């Protein structure tokens, strides 16, 4: 009941919905960068959303299944093939023992999520299987997968559930719509020109952008006057502005607290779309209010709950 | 200090509670809110924040405040992370408003007694100077003290765990006497050994694991402050009182590897 890694790909880590409940101890949440794709992949194979999936970034691995399995991939289209045949994204596929899952040319997006029916056999760390590479814990041996790793699969032979995806749960990888934000705690401390730049000019995702944060470059964002900030809680999507004036969006492996002024926060329903953007891409921001952000969040949760109820374990 | 908020404390909070207990709840994105207890740092504000976090945790343990995932003390604030769809609300009230209303109610009706889930007192044995604290002499020189005077200042009286952050189990501890005011090192080290005690700006940190760091290293503790195998993985939490106790290199060796 295992799969073996023939080629590791680029930074493939197991992730789930995150390590909640320990942030007061400085323990980062981690978890899937694109939680929607993670949940979709799980739903497609009939798993609950808390099972870990393999987060695959840009360049996929090559895996051989030593047991029959049912798998699904959601999120980025990274050119997956099963025994050389193209694997259609967003649908469950039966895998025979000995089959090889490989990845080729990236079609769109940055991160794909590979779910296997029954889930992977991983030890939880503080209640979560999410990998935290910096801390060397969670997931498989606390690190990205490597060649010759052998990873357990919980079960293999059930029929894939028949999943009908609502049209609006399809991935948004190619979507160029602005990333929506709510005003940050220190929005009013930035000068009006900077506020205007933030909402009207593009910001480019820089190369040093990864699971911890996206570094952006664009028009400088400056405070009206220097502010003496004290460390406080930050979250997924918090946009901090260090003295350089170049913003940083905190992502899944962010620290639990931060001391830079926060101009805005990406709204939670737009985080998956942001997680599918690549270094070199430009993004625009659009301001919405908190009521709008939370109404969108509730509607989104309701859609997923419906999907997971309909296609979860039977 | 400039106000980080850009506006004064909410009138509403000030009307209903005595000013030392005032707090103000503001959103921080659509899945987190911040309970701000002051506009500038003071030990008193820090202790009130830690006490508020303990009050919220005590009520969560009773099954109220549903939907909260993490309660995170900051220097003078408490961050409350929540799942919007898990917060109970009536008649279309948005999760933020529902949770804010519940938290205001909890904080108004809870005793402001900082003894709730009382602050613990913990001794931290430290071997100062030498290979364990390579910056001790430099720190002493910069502060115009002898190394022994730095150690005396560091062990003089119990200090507060102000908050945790930066890395798992990484505690900020203070404040020490103003004679121990020294900035961080201009060039951070790429690797600081686990257990190292850093000093800067009248605060200390204890490196929970090998980490990069820019604090002045004055000693090292043989205690393990962070252990993932433990369900309560961290020796310290915000609001604890810590006393640093000087030990000899021999005592350090004797304590190393022994159960804490």
From TrEMBL, chain A:
GO molecular function: ATP binding; hydrolase activity
The name this protein goes by in its record: Carboxylase
Keywords: ATP-binding, Hydrolase, Nucleotide-binding
Annotated ranges, domain Carboxyltransferase: 24-303
Cross-referenced Pfam families: CT_A_B
Organism: Pseudomonas matsuisoli
The organism's place on the tree of life at top rank: Bacteria
Nucleotide-binding among keywords: yes
